[in-house]
Amino acid sequence: MGDTKIVSEPILFISDVHCQYELINAQITHAESLTGTPVSDVIVLGDFGFFEPVLRKYFRRDKHVFQRPTRFIEGNHEDYHDLAVYADAYADCLIHLPRGTVTAIGGYRFLCLGGTAYMDAMMTPEAAEIHDMDIDRCLQRDALSIDIIITHDCPSGIGVPNTPGFEMYGEPGFPRSRELSDRFHPVFWVFGHHHKWFDTEQDGTRYLGLPESWNGYGLLYPGFEWRSVSHPIGKPLGFWEKFRKLFLGEQKL
Ligand SMILES: [Fe+2]
User: Fold this and answer.
1) Average pLDDT, consecutive stretches of 10 residues, N- to C-terminus, the chain (253 residues)
2) Which residues lie near ion ligand 1 (Cβ < 5 Å)?
3) What pLDDT digit, counting tens, does each position of 74-114 carry?
4) How far away, in angstroms, is 12 Cα from ligand 1 center?
5) DSSP letter string over 85-129?
6) Most buried in the list 178, 191, 221, 246, measured by CB within 10 Å?
7) CA angle at residue 69 from 149 to 84, to 5 degrees?
């Protein structure tokens, strides 16, 4: 017998877009070609690059649309000053999932927590930092109401290795993350930010880390079936993309 064929429509997880919005459709197209199945939804795990000039150019001026319904949590490279305003203004293009909210997608219940642990003032604008009130808001949720936690940063204490050159920030992960796993015992916890694949199991939870959007994505099928797809796009950057990456969106993490 061959491999079991998965026929249900998966949710596509992608992270760290850093203003290169076109990579989302590129990876959707790849996933649908690879699997022969439409993607039902897309979840961006932060560092989307939520900056109004880039949003306006991509969605309004050039009239692009995402091929599938797309939602995002925020990372540390977004415009936090106007996030709520522009999240509302561009809600016809993509949906923001605020911290501490629970959203149902594809039969799963997701607890959403954007932001990161503090690194430095450049890498972590004050509003990007995960604060106690964010954790407390999450902890108010019913203990049995969550299947999957989605975060930009990783939880601490699960063995995510540091990125070379970032050792000065200490062990990867954000404070009090353990309180979330202890309360909710999620089946999955999926994150980005660290720009590398990661997959481990601890105390009944599978922790999955995604690389940058241009290096791959994850697919989640019914029954907690996960598939990591490495797909480097390696797209050369034009002038404005370099400008965006340098000044609007991309640092290393
Ligand atoms: Fe990040």
Assistant:
1) 64 97 98 97 98 97 98 96 96 98 97 96 93 98 97 97 88 96 98 97 98 97 97 69 57 57
2) 47, 75-76, 193, 253
3) 999 999 998 999 999 999 999 999 999 999 999 999 999 99
4) 19
5) HHHHHTTTT-EE--TT-EEEETTEEEEEE--B----TTTS-GGGB
6) 191
7) 70
